[in-house]
Each structure stands twice: as structure tokens, then as C-alpha cells.
Amino acid sequence: MQISDVTEAASALHQFIQQQQPLTVLTGAGLSTASGIPDYRDAKGQWKRNPPMQHQEFMRDGELRKRYWGRSMHGWPVLYNAQPNAAHHALAELQHQGLLGTIITQNVDGLHQRAGSRDVIDLHGYANDMICMSCQARSPRLAMHERCIDLNPHFAALQAGSAPDGDADLETDFSDFRVPDCTACGGILKPDVVYFGDNVPRERVERAQAALRNSGGLLVIGSSLMVFSGFRFARQAAADSQPIALLTLGTTRADSLAQLRLNTDISETLSSLLLTPA
Ligand SMILES: [Zn+2]
């Protein structure tokens, strides 16, 4: 069943949650666009812009890393300063009421936790943490950001629009950009996120799969599930005969697997759902 009216969608989702509680929730970029974080894909699941950098490119190409950090210096503060929106708060409230179980998120912005949700699995990592690819030392992204500015004041003075995942729209000659290395070992520093072409750590996938198996079903919010790392949970739920609901504008890869498809605004629908009498 597909619904395109907010009031009807909230009512149907309310009923779905009551029947299947606790639900596992899987969230994607569409949840955080209302927090000012741009999305990569359009309503048909197609790229709106050039696909993001792949892990292998980042590791082997020093010139691409200069470009990456030169742009991140402008784009990352948008991610860092973003605030949870009504949808993050609604999910935290529903989780607090015991209606939702684990929240698996494909987002790297940490906004579920900041809205007060517990039991969140950051499937693709957390963009505000850094990891050294040689010695595995962890460090805050803020420190990296400040080192980039200190080493590259002339790049910091440029103007650029924000892009998804802490990237920015900035085209210039980055050959003079100085990329900070690990202060402990001189290794390559990388945000602790799973890039395209990289695998989600197995332990993390298994933890998410177990959470889904032990819940009443799957609610996908704000994701077209075009990336397999998210789609696999819809496949698992379908294989285990667990019901699936989708709340996202546009088409998804799991449309044929879902019992309930809500093609409505995410924040409006979840806010309306909270007002629905029990
Ligand atoms: Zn290191």
C-alpha cells in the first residue's frame, strides 16, 4: 500500500508501529536534509552530483587528498554545526516509549544521539572522528580542521557552497594545499567513515542484523536503499517474513518488499504521528 497524504501516512504508520513493536529503524540522508545537510541523490535514487570519493582513491592519490581536505575545510563545519530536526526528536521520543528498538543509520552526522536516542548503530561511521590508517589512533575531526586552517590560510579565505558528507563545491588549484598527517606516526589521516568502495566492518553488520532479527520488523526512513550496505537489511527482513514500512519521498530499491510505502515528508509525518492518540 502506498500513501501520499501526511495525516493518512501518520495514522497508518502509527498502526504499523503499534502492531510490530519494537521496530528496528534504518535511516538515511533524507532524514538529515531538514537539518541543512545536503543529500547525494534525487527522488529517483539517482546521483544529483558526482559520486563521492572512493576509499582506494583516497588512500593512493595524494593530490585527491589535497582536494578532499581543501574542500572539507569549507564543507565540514556545516555537518559539525547541524542540529537534530523534528524527525530525529520524534524518533528519540518513540524509542523512549519503547515502540522502537535499535536505530541503524547510514548517516555520519551523529544527530540521532544528539536528539537523545540510545542504541544507535552508525553503520557508516561518524564524520567527527578521525582515524590514522597506519597506527589506528583516533582523534577529533575538529583538531584536523584547525590544523588544516593553520597550514592553509589562503585556502581558508575562499568561499564555497556546502555539499553532502562535509564536502564543499570548490574548484581551484589544490596543489599547494598542505595535508596534516598523524601526529603520532606520520600516517594518513581519514575521517572514521565508510567510503564508497569500502566495507562496513563485519562486527557492526552482525550487530545490526541481530538487532533486526530480534525485533518486530523494519522501518526505513529517508533512504532510497541504493547502497547494498543498507539494502541488505530490507532483504533480511523480507527473507525472515518480517514486515517492512518505508517512509521516504520517491522510489526505493525495496518498494516491492514493503507492506507500507509512505511517500510523504518525513518530519511532518513523524511529528503528526506523535500527536496520534494511542
Ligand atoms: Zn598514526
TrEMBL record:
The catalytic site is made up of H124
* Annotated residues for binding of Zn(2+): C132, C135, C182, C185
InterPro entries documented for this protein? DHS-like_NAD/FAD-binding_dom, NAD-dep_sirtuin_deacylases, Sirtuin, Sirtuin_cat_small_dom_sf, Ssirtuin_cat_dom
Q: Which GO terms describe its molecular function?
A: histone deacetylase activity, NAD-dependent; metal ion binding; NAD+ binding
Q: Which UniProt keywords apply?
A: Metal-binding, NAD, Transferase, Zinc
Using the UniProt record, name the top-level EC class of this enzyme in a single word.
Answer: transferase
What Pfam families would the database entry show?
SIR2 (PF02146)
Which segment of the chain is annotated as a signal peptide?
A: none
Which stretches make up the Deacetylase sirtuin-type domain?
Answer: 1-278
- EC number(s) per entry: 2.3.1.286
Q: In its UniProt entry, what is this protein called? A: protein acetyllysine N-acetyltransferase
Q: What is the lineage of its organism?
A: Bacteria, Pseudomonadati, Pseudomonadota, Gammaproteobacteria, Alteromonadales
